[in-house]
Each structure stands twice: as structure tokens, then as C-alpha cells.
Amino acid sequence: MKPTITSNFKTKALIALGALSVIAVGVVWAQSEAPKMPDLTKMTTSNEMDDLYFNTKVGSFKILPRGNVMPSGSLSMTFTGSVLISGLEGDVQATGSVRREYWQKEHNKQVWFGTGKLVIKGKFLNVQWFGRDLNAELHGNGILRLYGEFDKNLDTGYYWFDKADKKYWGNYGTTVVVPEQKMGGGSAMTRDEFEKNKKGKSGG
């Protein structure tokens, strides 16, 4: 029994330290003069939508703007760990033991921590997660940076737009653009543009 108790204690301690680190970063950020919040009047949003699925046993991710285009849509995720949300114009729904542990109204930054499900809807500056046992789906747009750790099976996790084409999460930092970017005619295009272009060339 002792090894199991020790293992559980270590896991909880690591998760707790991760949450405290995120909270500490938020507090330091809020109390300092820099970096300043981006000028939201210069930020735009996009109606582009795509579905990205991703999971990992242990890791982290961050969703960022594409230039001056704020990420938007719906992010649904089950996990154990901590989530830092910045600049949200929308709402958050939590189930399980996930609770908001920190909220800095002036800079619109909040931290959620626990085990369960979190659904974030609207537009935001960024969302950052750290923890374990993540299963997530983003229906919207943005740029994701994925960081994974090897589990007992030496897997880091997966991400995919099409379940038939799963890609490794990677442990070195992987950047994923949503909507999915396809190469066609020497330039990048969204998946919808790619499919329309392919049908046009085939006469469909």
C-alpha cells in the first residue's frame, strides 16, 4: 500500500505545484506594470471555424492569437490540472471538482484548478493549461502550442482534425494552426478552401 500512497501523493503534489506556479505568475503579472495588456481596440475576431481534437496523459498547451486576430469559439476539455484564461469575453462552465481559484478583474485573468470538465465559450487573448489526463476539443480558431511529456508507454499524446490522420503531440513544442492549413498551389489555405479547390480541379 505504501508505494501507491506515495505515488498518489507525488502526483497531487506536482499538480498542486503546477497550479501554484500559474497563480503566482498571474499575481506577479497583475502587480507589475509590464507587460501591459494588448490594446483590445486593435484586436479583431474571425468567423472561421474548424474542429481540432487533442489529448495527452501529461503535458501543457497554450492557445494564442493569430497576429491581431483573437482566438474564438468553444473549447471543451476534461482534465486534472490548472487552466489560466486571459482576456475572456464570454463564459466558463465547470463541472466536477474544477473551481476558480483566482480572478484578477482589472486585467481579466482567471485560474481554474481541479479534476473535471471545463467549457470556455467566446473570444479570448489566450488559454493555458498544465496537468494530466487531458481530452479536449476546440471548435473555433486560433494558434495552439502543444508541449507533452512521455507517459509509461512513451507516448506524448495526439492531435487531429480528421481521426484517420492523428499526429503526435510531441514533447519539444508543436504549433497547430486552426482552421487546419493545407498546402495547395504553393500557398497555405484552410481545409475548406483546399477541398473546394480540389473539387474545382476535378470538375466536381
Report on the structure:
21% of the residues lie in helices and 49% in strands. The strands form 2 sheets. Strands 1, 2, 3, 4, 5, 6, 7, 8 and 9 form a 9-stranded antiparallel beta sheet that branches. It contains 2 helices and 11 strands. It is an alpha+beta fold.
Percent range for helical residues? 10-25%
Q: If helices are DSSP runs of H or I spanning 4 or more residues, what is the number of helices?
A: 2
Strand portion, in percent? over 45%
Shape: globular
* Run of helices and strands: HEEEEEEEEEEEH
Structural class: alpha+beta
Properties at a glance:
single chain; alpha+beta; nine-stranded antiparallel β-sheet; two-stranded antiparallel ribbon; 2 helices
